[in-house]
Amino acid sequence: MDKISREQVANVWMGEKYKILKDQYIEVCGKKLYRIQALKDFKGVRSGNIGGYIEKESNLSQPGNAWVSGNAWVHGTRHYLNLGPIGSRDGYTTIYRNKSKKAIIVCGCFLGSLDEFERAVHKTHAGAKYEAEYMALIQLARLREKEWLDETD
User: Fold this and answer.
1) So what's the pLDDT on residue 1?
2) Burial of 13 (C-beta count, 10 Å sphere; 0-12/13-18/19+)
3) Global pTM?
4) Residues with Cβ within 8 Å of residue 21, at least 6 apart in sequence
């Protein structure tokens, strides 16, 4: 019997949220990036909506509400994290690498650096269980940011 990945099990259980349109692509940095199309409704996206571009399925998870929209594109690996559900919103938090290889965090209505997010967490959740959850997320993000800063492109 063939082995299947956890992601494949999740896709069967939850249903795939998008498909890759192999006939619609752009080339970026010598790589083909393919347009995506939503297969079902989910947070702010409707079935049939055309999205942005991804290089491969591992660039955008099938579970959850993450989406690449408009003419945005994602390629390569390990240049973003999407974690959740976590924190006081019980939602997903995204950390991505900016052009300076620094981590930017998007959590609810927050958008900023790891230092800014850490200050906001201490101010808003001091002593609460959510402070510990967010601090663990920040620690992981700092490890990833160090990898990004050490990369030679």
Assistant:
1) 45
2) exposed
3) 0.53
4) 34, 35, 36, 37, 50
